[in-house]
Amino acid sequence: MKKVAILSLSFILIAFAGYAQKKKKVTKMTVDTITTASGLRYFITQKGTGVQAKKGDNVLVHYTGKLMNDTVFDSSYKRNQPFKFKLGQGMVIKGWDEGIALLKVGDKATFIIPANLAYGPRANGNIPANSTLKFDVELIEVKEPICVKPFDVNGIDTLTTPSGLKYIKVKSLQEGVQASSGKMVAVHYTGYLLDGTKFDSSIERETPHNFQLGVGQVIPGWDEGIALLKVGEKARLIIPANLAYGAQGAGGIIPPNATIVFDVELMKVQ
Question: Is 223 tagged catalytic?
Answer without folding.
Answer: no
